[in-house]
Task: inverse folding
């Protein structure tokens, strides 16, 4: 069975601080996808990134970066120089590569950036 | 086509009534998913369509729930004889089977309140 655990339930930081959201996963599949989604107060889940399990290269997109470590089954997300607009609930998710590719989500981390 | 759209955005119903939600996916996406999200939790998979075929259903989907996707376009999710435990956000997502595999794009959801 697949499982995703987001270590922090809530994080609160002051604007411009760096913040890391931790994600640990379990799966018996040898290949899989990992994702991060952002859910602002409006409710819509916004896709941020997808990683293939066979590609452990870290990725940076602007102020966002992701650290994938297969050896520890972790896929952590860092926001550099946080802004108030980053406040949202962030979800880590896992899916199979074959078949339905349905997403298994963690319980989410509520991130609050204070001015 | 700007994304996945869901209707209605909010629904309040009395216990025992039937409700139906609609999802219009991104037009070129042949995969469509329904998820349910309760307060403070990550979304949970309910069911999956590829074109008009419903290929997978979660055990969460009791016999009071039915989903259809006629002609492989929009989808409807019906809940019969609603119960208070059905109160949740119902999210629809769509994805492609070519190109950006596994990247599901979500609608804003239908928030159901059963009173």
Result:
């Amino acid at each position: 069975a697949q499982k995703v655990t987001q270590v922090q339930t809530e994080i609160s930081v002051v604007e411009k601080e760096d913040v890391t959201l931790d994600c640990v996963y379990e799966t018996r599949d040898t290949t899989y996808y990992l994702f991060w989604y952002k859910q602002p107060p409006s409710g819509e889940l916004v896709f941020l990134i997808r990683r293939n399990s066979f590609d452990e290269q870290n990725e940076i997109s602007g102020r966002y970066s992701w650290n994938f470590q297969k050896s520890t089954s972790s896929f952590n997300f860092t926001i550099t120089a946080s802004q108030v607009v980053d406040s949202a609930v962030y979800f880590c998710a896992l899916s199979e590569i074959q078949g339905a590719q349905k997403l298994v989500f963690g319980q989410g981390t509520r991130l609050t950036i204070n001015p | 086509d700007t994304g996945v759209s869901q209707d209605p955005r909010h629904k309040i119903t009395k216990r025992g009534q039937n409700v139906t939600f609609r999802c219009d996916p991104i037009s070129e996406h042949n995969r469509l998913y329904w998820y349910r999200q309760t307060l403070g939790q990550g979304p949970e998979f309910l069911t999956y369509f590829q074109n008009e075929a419903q290929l997978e259903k979660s055990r969460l989907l009791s016999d009071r729930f039915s989903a259809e996707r006629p002609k492989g376009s929009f989808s409807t999710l019906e809940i019969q004889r609603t119960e208070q435990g059905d109160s949740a956000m119902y999210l629809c997502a769509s994805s492609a089977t070519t190109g950006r595999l596994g990247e599901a794009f979500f609608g804003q959801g239908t928030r159901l309140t059963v009173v």
